[in-house]
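The instructor's notes for this session suggest beginning with a concrete chain rather than abstract definitions. Hand out the sequence below and ask the class to guess, before any prediction is shown, which regions might be ordered.
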Amino acid sequence: MAGTHWRKAGFSPMRVMILLPLIVLAACGDKQSDQSGIATNIVDEAMNNVREVPQGENGIQTVEPAPDISPPSGPVGATIPASIQGRWAGLDESCADRATEMELTITPTSLVFLESEGKATGVSHGPDGRIRIDAAFTGEGQSWNRKLELRPSAGGRELTVIDDGRAVTRKRCS
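After discussion, reveal the predicted structure:
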C-alpha cells in the first residue's frame, strides 16, 4: 500500500504535501552562493563600489556662499575677458579628449559645457580677479538663467567655477 509508511509515522499525505515545499525552502535559505561575482542583493553590491572622491580631484565641493559682487561703476558688458577664454578640462582629465565630462570652452560671449551652452548676458568684475557671468543657458531641450562666479588662479592655469555654492576647478588646455 502506497503511503502507509507515512501514515504509520503520523503523517497524512496532505501534511506531507504541505510540509515538503517548506522543507525545500528552508534548505535553500540563506546559504551563501559558491559563485563569486554574482550579486544577490543589488543595493549591497552597489554600495561596495562606492568610493569617496577626495576634495580637489574633479569633485564638486561645497563652498561658502559666493559674496555679492557689487556692480561696477561703469556699464556691465557681455564680453568675457580674454584672460579666461579657451578650453578647460577637469584636473585629472586629458586635454586631448574633446568630450570629457568636465569640458568647458569659454568664448568671448559664451560658456560651452559638454551638454549645455550659456550665452553671456552680463559680465562684471569683482575683487581678486573674480568674474561674475550672468548667462542664458540652453541644453537638452531646456533653457534657464544662471549666475556663475569664475575665479582664475594667480597663474591663470586653473579656473574655479562656482555655481549655487558648488565649486569645480578645471585646468587650462588652450
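Then share the key points. The first helix runs from residue 4 to 8. The chain has two domains: 1-30, 61-172.
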